[in-house]
Specification:
Elements: E1 4-8, H1 16-30, E2 35-39, E3 68-72, H2 80-85, E4 88-93, E5 114-118, H3 121-130, E6 158-162, H4 168-184, E7 190-194, H5 200-208, E8 212-215, H6 225-231, E9 235-239, E10 274-276, H7 281-296, H8 300-314, H9 318-333
Parallel strand pairs: 1-2, 1-3, 3-4, 4-5, 6-7, 6-8, 8-9, 9-10
Protein name: Glycosyl transferases group 1
Length: 334
């Protein structure tokens, strides 16, 4: 039986994409697939979730032709061991924006003997439209035992959570625009809560205590923070980064509401947030005002939106990811 070797890039800090690689490794190991983690450097982030997965040091890596060498899209040079060994090289595209950024000059994907996995339907669409490949989709998953709705939450002030690391300057512009408008209108009081440097438990607690989550990340492959916010009962407002439209659907009509021109896959859930085009500050201010006003006035449409959002999040749990990974690897291994 072939062995799957998963390349871990030399990153100084843990990222969402790196965590997903560890998740996939843990799922495959639990499902009985031979799998190894291969960190590029001796010092690497090793989360508890993949602690049971065997690790192969870079210097000890030996690939066989029927092995699978899994590499994320932004690390094209990491394909070298697999290409040299004639192994089955698989590129896991976790963000459409990095598909071409790391390619050496003069190298194109059609000249490399690789296959692809996409992290979301919009990423698969982007790949189909650019490099002409059909890629299966393996979505990430969130911990639904950690990210849960609140039992209660104070009505006032309306708490707006955001992540400064996600396009910090744009987040500041949106906040400034909202506050300038609020100063001229009779708007409900708000409290801004920055989520920065917190462990997952702290992120979950902050999201449960927040009424609104301002989403400022882009570009994205399949963003997890909005899903975590949905699972915690926060009304999401902001950007999709393209990849977010794997699950983001608009719940209201307002000036600047995003209307994607590309195809969206059918979903069992309905509108789950207020979404605008990436970098559209004014539209984000409009969406934020709509959300804050609706939350403060106990608009029943908020209840419907939050129910759809919770349903959305429950389709992206770790167990769903595990089943998807097992089914996909069964195909890859056959």
């Amino acid at each position: 039986m072939s062995v799957t070797h998963i390349f871990l890039p030399p990153l100084r800090k843990p990222t969402g994409g790196l965590a997903v690689l560890h998740q996939v490794a843990a799922h495959l190991h639990a499902e009985g697939f031979p799998v190894r983690l291969v960190p590029r450097e001796a010092a690497y982030w090793a989360p508890a979730l993949s602690a049971a997965v065997p690790v192969t040091p870079w210097a000890d890596l030996h690939l066989a032709p029927d092995d699978i060498w899994l590499v994320p899209e932004g690390w094209v040079n990491g394909l070298a061991p697999g290409l040299s060994a004639g192994a089955r090289c698989v590129v896991y595209v976790q963000n459409w924006a990095y598909l071409f950024s790391a390619l050496p000059e003069g190298v194109t994907w059609d000249r490399l003997p690789v296959s692809f996995i996409a992290v979301s339907d919009p990423v698969a669409w982007f790949m189909r439209e650019t490099i002409g490949v059909e890629a299966p989709v393996l979505r990430p998953g969130i911990d639904l035992s950690l990210f849960t709705p609140p039992t209660e939450r104070p009505d006032s002030p309306v708490r707006i959570a955001f992540m400064p690391r996600k396009n910090k300057a744009l987040a500041a512009q949106i906040r400034a625009g909202f506050e300038a408008r609020a100063a001229r209108r009779a708007m409900p009081p708000v409290e801004w809560v920055a989520i920065d440097g917190l462990p997952p438990e702290g992120v979950a607690r902050t999201l449960r205590e927040s009424h609104v989550f301002l989403v400022t990340g882009y570009p994205e492959g399949c963003p997890l923070p909005p899903l975590e916010a949905m699972a915690c009962g926060a009304l999401c407002v902001g950007f999709a980064g393209l990849g977010g439209f794997d699950y983001m659907r608009n719940a209201a009509t307002f000036p600047g509401a995003a209307e994607p021109w590309f195809p969206l896959r059918p979903t069992p859930w309905t509108g789950n947030g207020l979404w605008v085009a990436d970098a559209d500050v004014m539209a984000a201010v409009n969406a934020l005002e709509t959300a804050v006003t609706a939350v403060a006035s106990h608009d029943p449409r908020v209840t419907n939106c939050l129910a759809a959002a919770l349903d959305t999040a429950h389709h992206y749990g770790i167990e769903t990811q595990r089943r998807s990974a097992a089914a996909l690897w069964q195909q890859l291994s056959s």
